[in-house]
Design goal:
Number of strands: 13
Shape: globular
CATH superfamily of the largest domain: ATPase, nucleotide binding domain
CATH topology of the largest domain: Nucleotidyltransferase, domain 5
Order of helices and strands: EEEEEHEEHHEHHHEEEHHHHHEHHHEH
Strand order of the largest sheet: 5-4-3-2-1-6-8-7
CATH class of the largest domain: Alpha Beta
Length: about 400
Amino acid sequence: MKIFVLNCGSSTVKFQLLNMKDEMVLGKGLADCIGTNDAVFTFKGLSSNSTTQQRDLPDHQFAISLAINALSEDSERKELFIDAVGHRIVHGGERFKNPVKISKSIIQDIKNCIPLAPLHNPHNLKGIEICLSLLPGTPQVAVFDTAFHQNIPPKAYLYALPYRFYTQHRIRRFGFHGTSHQYVAEETAQMLNTPLTALKLITCHLGNGASIAAIKDGRSVDTSMGFTPLEGIVMGTRSGDIDPAIPGIMQKVEDLSADEVSDLLNKESGLLGLSGVSKDMREIEHVSEKGNERASAAIEVFCYRIRKYIGAYFAVLNGVDAIIFTGGIGENSSLIRAKILNGMDKLGIKLNEELNHKNHRMIHDGPIPILVIQTNEELMIARETASILKRTMQKNHITGDSPFSDDFKT
């Protein structure tokens, strides 16, 4: 079974083709800066070296067509058969707790979630619509970033606002990065040779966007991101948790509009705002080593906030069976992991400094495993898509229906 995984952003298309028999990546690539003069297309296939070329990418349809053509040309027979397409959808609201096979009604439900993710869901939908045109008859599956967190209880997702804001406007904690948190949780269960349903885990997805999740018995019970990805720990350009009175004060003291404050909190804050250097932790670590005090302060704030969340989730779970680091920072920065966890030995959390420095997969000396796991959201989406497709085929075999959906016929 071959699954085409698609992740459409405002000006990007990330894609992979996976053979689910052995979960091998047959080809992958990125169309970046779509619709600009700086557009770039990168591709790596099984039979070709990685190539990057600047070229005209006028729109998402052209980019996805280019991706399909590149995968076809790279295949042995110069033709491509795709069993299903798995789409990353950022927001599924309360409607979607699991991946779903796409139909007309599902597309409408995803459109209904656009107010919750106006910068993301429209572009995710664009990918679905393009694939319906380019790959007619091919089953498509939507996999939601928010779905994994939809089991968190009301005490964790409700905000202390007048209740009508929840009932009328669905303002509540949703959480994000669910596909990543789920993937590393499943990998942890395999590494520890323990059923996921028997584990209590704290997963730390640390990158330009960052979030932490408390996972019990295979389900997310709390997570740091909230109604939007702005809440939680400090991120590359996002502020994370702040006093809710601050935005109003910012509007007054600098005569800013609400949209300008939102942009400032989302695009000019976080590590970038604190350090004044970069949103990239690698660059911040580099200049910190040279004595830049603001960069050093940014690192300390970042690590301290994460440390507090780990402590809080330790209490939420009443203990923890493993702590997992993933994402670009979590997987690669031994300094950040050490600053977060050193001095937590009374909780059974103790780093092995040598293994941590080498980015080993297991980096603990204490009783609680500390793991470094490379996330693979594309593989998780492919697994979920294959699972949905298999269940659909089994159901159709029993009912005698066609394996292809009639949902789009008029």
